[in-house]
Amino acid sequence: MKDGNWTLVTEFILFGLSEDPELQLPLFVLFFLIYIITVLCNLSVIILIWISLNLHTPMYILLSNLSFVDICCSSAITPKMLGTFLLKKTISLPGCVAQFFVFAYMVGAEIFLLTALSYDRYVAICNPLRYTTIMTKQACTFIVVFISLISLLDPLIHTICILRLSFCSSNEIMHFHCDVIPLLKLSCSETSLNELLVTYEGSFLTIASVVPIIISYICIISTIMRIKSSNGRWRTFSTCSSHAASVTLYFGTIAVMYISPNTINSLEQGRVAAVFYTVVIPMANPMIYSLRNKDVKDSLRKAMQKIPLRGKTL
Description:
The structure is a single chain. The chain is an all-alpha fold. Helices cover about 75% and strands about 5% of the residues. The C terminus is likely disordered.
């Protein structure tokens, strides 16, 4: 523990996105609308996949889980962030740790779900005749359960290490939510082990997911290049273009936050990156993945057509 006079910290003050009083109301309105859109769009995807029998396939089951994770991730961060704009900026130490745990769990689950979706696209494009025998409902269920369990590892390790730290003197978290890096800045304990965990475990988690994705896309591109028709190549590539865009955006912002050598000393850069993967991407995923998909749009159209029919019978 660092020397000097100190008082035990039992609650923190979240810095938020900006201290400018004139920006608080516009930011509140903006992120409130983003949160509503995020919840409604992802919830619509989950319900639509659940009620549409033609969408009961491995890819859409994984997408429904991705939508659930996006709702949970956004709900763990955004409501408290909205409070920092107009109301209470404080958060208790247990509440801060709980928020970090849920957030880190959902980030890990999203990373592995994106990896699972890349494998699904690999099988669908490179082994189409064996797709139904490889990506069975049992295999899909196993993937979802495995992801749910393996995603606990990262937040558990970090949470245990955080709970061993002492916090004193300053209690202002230079962030809009509780995350491991800003918390390390406030600790009066030795944090070198925690910082190593952030770098190496974050790098391992990213590599463990990025490498399978890269391998999958090498195989996918190789298969696409063997297709003689240019229209056929484009149609095949379009089936995984949404996944490629989402992976690039998500892993790019994660890398900026946790793998950059200067991350520990660049909280401003971290806040900007965090806005993308905690707020913007959960809103964009259903639009990128599902609402642009022909099968989903057809199912949505059929579901919408049933609504006025009931009204006419009344």
